[in-house]
Amino acid sequence: MKNDFQTISVIGLGYIGLPAAAMFASRKIKVVGVDVNAAAVDTINRGEIHIVEPDLDLVVHAAVSEGYLRATTKPEPAEAFLIAVPTPFKGENHDPDLSYIEAAAKAIAPVLEAGNLVILESTSPVGATEALARWLAEARPELTFPQDAGERSDIRIAHCPERVLPGKVMQELISNDRVIGGMTRRCSEMAVALYKVFVTAECVIASGPRVAEMAKLTENSFRDVNIAFANELSVICDKLDMDVWELIALANRHPRVNILQPGPGVGGHCIAVDPWFIVSSAPKQARLIRAAREVNDAKPDWVLEKVRSAIGAHLSEHPSKTASDVVLAVYGLAFKPDIDDLRESPAVAIAHTLVSQHPGRVQVVEPNINSLPASLEGAELTALESARSADIHVMLVDHKSFRTSERPNGLVVDARGVWE
Ligand code: SAJ
Fold first, then answer.
1. What ligand 1 atom has the least distance to the C-alpha of 224?
2. pLDDT tens digit at each of 420 positions of the chain
3. Which of 72, 78, 271, 407 reaches 20 to 30 Å from 114, CA-CA?
């Protein structure tokens, strides 16, 4: 397919937007990246990055120095706009917060021109793309939009959810299939032409944006339900005095069984959030999806209970000691193995509760960071070897260097099956 895009604008230069911007720029298309964070904009314009993702630094550096990528805080005209802003949830009901999408719509509306394509990449609740189209139409009444003008619209709009795995973004951007949900057939075709600039896998056209939105939510909910199943098994196995990792490995020998791994809870910005968008739009029907969220969200408290029991057991074995003499070692803070991203990490939440409630020393082993986050003030960032003499060892993240480490002496609470 011929590619006619000369200038692409990416709104939101975070974990998804910046890699996408860099990828288009690496194919020698002029990319204008827009972000409200002026510090991030300055960093990118120096050819550096403000997030951690393998290989992204090299691609951004090359794109900026060759003049294909530039960042700014104010939108400029372009042929295609790609919106990659956060979609968190808000309140006790976990209702989706579309305010970032609305702000992005209002920011690009003044520079839109007939013939432009607007793509929503942010993971979104069903109906968000149509809401985006309405916000754009309200701001630019002299232009026509697909919800009113159909195939003849001045502006084309599509939802193309991002599906890349943090840590493998630069590879998966190219090699993962894309789901393209245009508001009309022409919207979809224009979006396919855009992604074909770098995607080597298939760009599959969905029947519309709503099913594309739901497909993305379904992918992450599927993973959440599978992990919840593993987490529930871990609690059952504990009660039945069985090794859950052995159990899952045995069951997975069946050709049609593929259970994921239990852990201290589900973290990150996607799997623990997106299922709530389904629950919020169909609260009575989404019973299993809600239960999975609740099972996974309850896991950190279960791990903390195990640590409290271990402290109790240690004190009964050493009657001369008090709780303030007991040294805890916590292994791992990141939200998953071999990354340095601590955001929305159940390991950080567990460590935080231990630091605030345990009167004794808390050592934290996290090889991927140089200093502890403020929420863990009072804990000690410790090297793996130096933590071996602690009394109780709490394994939370199975980083590579932990997997090859020997089980320490002392009591172990192992949420990842590293030393089992
Ligand atoms: N986890 C387990 N057990 C497992 C696998 C994961 O407890 O067996 C935990 C991890 O430790 C972590 C959480 O789940 O705390 C999420 O990690 P993850 O690797 O499952 O997923 P994310 O959040 O890094 O990325 C997911 C991916 N979605 C799917 O694999 C279906 C990715 O492809 C999406 O693009 C991303 O969400 C997103 O942005 O939506």
1. 14
2. 445 799 999 999 999 999 999 999 999 999 999 999 999 999 999 999 998 889 999 999 999 999 999 999 999 999 999 999 999 999 888 899 999 999 999 999 999 999 999 999 999 999 999 999 999 999 999 999 999 999 999 999 999 999 999 889 999 999 999 999 999 999 999 999 999 999 999 999 999 999 999 999 999 999 999 999 999 999 999 999 999 999 999 999 999 999 999 999 999 989 999 999 999 999 999 999 999 999 999 999 999 999 999 999 999 999 999 999 999 999 999 999 988 889 899 999 999 999 999 999 999 999 999 999 999 999 999 999 999 999 999 999 999 999 999 999 999 999 999 997
3. 72
For the full predicted model, state whether its pTM sits above 0.90: yes
- To the query of whether residue 216 is one of the catalytic residues in this protein, the response is yes
Q: Is the CB of 266 under 6 A from ligand 1?
A: yes
Separation of alpha carbons 420 and 416, rounded Å: 9
Q: Closest Cα to atom 9, ligand 1: which residue?
A: 266
Residues 6+ apart with CB under 8 A from 240: none
Give the residue among 390, 398, 376 at the shortest CA–CA distance from 310: 390
In Å, what is the CA distance from 307 to each residue of 184, 198, 339?
A: 55, 48, 25
